[in-house]
Inverse folding.
């Protein structure tokens, strides 16, 4: 099995966000919001770090 | 007793939720009647573990060598029966052969750590420290 780097990021972020949402919040609505926030921060943070490293390389 | 105080429960049920949650991802929540949460936890943690193994990630054996190897073993042991079954059946790599396999190793370790968080959450639900919303 092979994955691209980006698909690995998406899968990692998805599964981790689901577990964080269920374990760190009490009510379903809060879980949905927190899970979505975690996912966006994981993926967005990775993309931001990638651009930062690309700029440093230049 | 104030209305917001945790409801006392037997320590047996609390410990059972923790133990089952560690052995099988989501089983602690299932014991407490939280079926959807149990299913989501099971799918997420099991899929993450399976993808890690499929990517050729390293499955750590008990060791007293490098600190990172010891930590890797402890992290993967958190996956409970998934880890024990993988070791018994001989799945997983003993060393990282290709770059993407390093991602696999991280997937396996993180799935174990997430399973520990989920098991502790089931224990907190069982002993009343977290609301059964």
């Amino acid at each position: 099995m092979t994955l691209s780097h980006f698909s690995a990021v998406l899968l990692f972020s998805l599964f981790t966000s689901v577990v964080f949402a269920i374990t760190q919040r009490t009510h379903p609505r809060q879980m949905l919001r927190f899970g979505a926030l975690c996912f966006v921060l994981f993926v967005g943070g990775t993309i931001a770090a990638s651009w930062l490293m690309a700029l440093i390389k230049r | 007793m104030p209305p917001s105080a945790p409801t006392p429960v037997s320590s047996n049920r609390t410990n059972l939720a923790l133990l089952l949650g560690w052995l099988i991802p989501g089983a602690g929540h299932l014991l407490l009647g939280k079926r959807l949460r149990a299913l989501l936890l099971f799918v997420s943690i099991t899929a993450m573990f399976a993808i890690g193994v499929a990517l050729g990630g390293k499955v750590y054996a008990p060791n007293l060598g490098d600190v990172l190897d010891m930590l890797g073993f402890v992290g993967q042991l958190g996956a409970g029966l998934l880890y024990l079954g993988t070791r018994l059946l001989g799945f997983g790599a003993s060393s990282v052969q290709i770059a993407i396999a390093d991602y696999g190793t991280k997937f396996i370790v993180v799935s174990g750590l997430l399973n520990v968080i989920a098991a502790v959450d089931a224990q907190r639900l069982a002993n009343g420290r977290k609301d059964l919303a």
Notes: Chain A has a mean pLDDT of 95. The CA atoms of residues 46 and 52 of chain A lie 10 Å apart. Chain A is about 85% helix and 0% strand. Residues 28-57 of chain A form the longest helix (30 residues).
